[in-house]
Amino acid sequence: MALLPHQLELLSPARDADIGIEAVNHGADAVYIGGPAFGARATAANSVTDIERLVRHAHRFHSRVFVTLNTILRDDELEPVRRQVHQLYEAGVDALIVQDMGLLELDLPPIQLHASTQTDIRTPEKARFLQDVGLNQIVLARELTVQQIAAIRAAIDPARCTLEFFVHGALCVAYSGQCYVSHAHTGRSANRGDCSQACRLPYQVVDDQGRFVAHDKHVLSMKDNNQSANLAALVDAGVRSFKIEGRYKDMGYVKNITAHYRRLLDELIEARESSNDPLARASSGRTTFTFTPDPQQNFNREFTDYFVQGRKEDIGAFDTPKNPGQAIGWVTQVNADSVELETADPSVLLHNGDGLCYYDLQKELVGLQINRAEPTSPGAVGRWRVFPKDPIAGLRDLRRGTEVNRNRDMAWVRTLEKKSSDRRIGLWMALKPAPNGLRLDLTDEDGHQGSANTELPHQTAQDTAQNARHLCVTLNKLGNTVFSAHAVDVAEVANRFVPASALNALRRDAVAALESARAAAWVRPARAPAVEPPVAYPEDTLTYLANVYNQKAHDFYARHGVKVIGAAYESHEEDGEVSLMITKHCVRFSLSLCPKQAKGVTGVQGTIKAEPLTLVNGKEKLTLRFDCKPCEMHVVGRMKTAVKEQRKQELQAVPMQFYRTRPARKASAA
After folding, report:
1. What is the greatest pairwise CA distance in the chain?
2. DSSP labels, 593-618
3. Which of these, 440, 563, 601, 609, is most buried using a 10 Å CB contact count?
4. Does the pLDDT at position 665 exceed 60?
5. In what order do the strands lie in the sheet with 613-617?
6. Could you give the domains of the chain?
7. 364: which DSSP letter?
8. d(CA 612, CA 633)
């Protein structure tokens, strides 16, 4: 089954099991992590043993663990993947996040399957199809508006399929699964977890007459996603799983961003507690933090909410793909071995190891790390002398009046290196008389129960009120468990003296029984059955854009009514120029050259057209073509000869050839 329609799931990334455990501790209802292979992040693999350790911890809170198997697969990889899925199922994993539809044709255990954002889900028809073939949860394209999400929500059955949406982190400029620039230029496929990130490079932008439109701009580099202000709107549109990007990110990022969205979602849940449509967390317990979450403290390229509230001009990080940080002050003096700064806020403290940066005269970001920071004079407030790690002479254009940002605060880093959260499941405790002794009953917030008995002779306490306080305080010592007591009832035994050692043993045994009851009650979410007979795919023709890379995927689409099935771009059947990237981002729009922007401007209307532009980076050239009806941009190019030669041997070993044109119909029988 999917999430219940009133449940909200906070889904956090994990580069490894330790980060995943801290994601759970900081409030994640679910964690997604790469498996041993095929996880769309070439350097973020994890052993089944480590994943099993994460699963055990997550299930204590009824949080779920998803494993990414979201690359496209060659035929020779299908059997290793099948074996890996069985191992992950035995390890207790709750779901797999997949892109390759060939997996649905394999003999898999009854594990939930979720559609990766790589499946490019932008329409109600595509979403409904994926639901009907048995996908329990689908990750929508990041480019959708709340209105488009609501339309998809109206097309599916929320009892069968959950909508998942990215709410934070780095943005791919292309529709996910629709970018082939990396493979065309380097042989490294984004659809196989090895993107070279051509979108973060600087380009010259040249118009169709050879004139420069922009110089050394990162025109394909997006700011980072931040939907903090849109959570209520996304809930109303039908999103129930809120996904944080970042399987390459470090522990501090995952702690901070998970805590940030945990607070926001809890506030939303509490605000609607008495409404007609109350909401609930998708896992157990409440989380407290030793710090105040702040997304600005982590690496970011500044923030955008992208297209959720409609197209906006300021979505690109065109000046730099690096972290510009937050403005803290300006340079007052440059010395031979140090820089003197004045902070805008006198309370700001600089630390050894902080990272600072500034823009040089060419608008390039220059970074410097503080080796030592000290006040310019004893008692000076807001005035600092910093000694950079690198020589002053190498810091381009650093001069008096230069604005300085901080992009790493070591005090913040050290805070998150320590224990920074406490997650507890609420319970009620009742100490009662039992034959020959006492019984302690525990009931947790999910209704699970655990009990323990002890034989103990009756001893009457001298002071009933003081004894009752002693019983409550001792039983309430739950510090090394995952529980906290909402209430402790000792009314029936308030007059009985009980040694602290007996109470401690009774509490430990009852907690162990409750943990066992919770573990026994955990039911792995079931995989949705596919609709029979097989539903038809929304289209009857697929090009390379469908990423079909193995025979099982071909068979899947054929079984669902597709007549023409092109092979994936990685199969090298596309020889000429093709769309190497399809994106909702429009360079013409961002540079104020869009014909739609010119409408109504006196003397301009009709003179601006969406002619192609060219991107140039060294010897690399890409053509930008603009499809104004759907408001999309295509980045067009061809595969390098060197890449073709590099892959020829592999493709000879594992050939992939499908119909390039519609097959002729067979003549009907006479």
Report:
1. 105
2. --HHHHTT-TTTTTT-----EEEEET
3. 440
4. no
5. 212-217, 203-206, 613-617, 620-627, 632-637, 578-583
6. 7-171+223-283 (3.20.20.70), 174-219+536-661 (no CATH), 303-311+320-417 (2.40.10.170), 422-521 (3.30.390)
7. -
8. 10
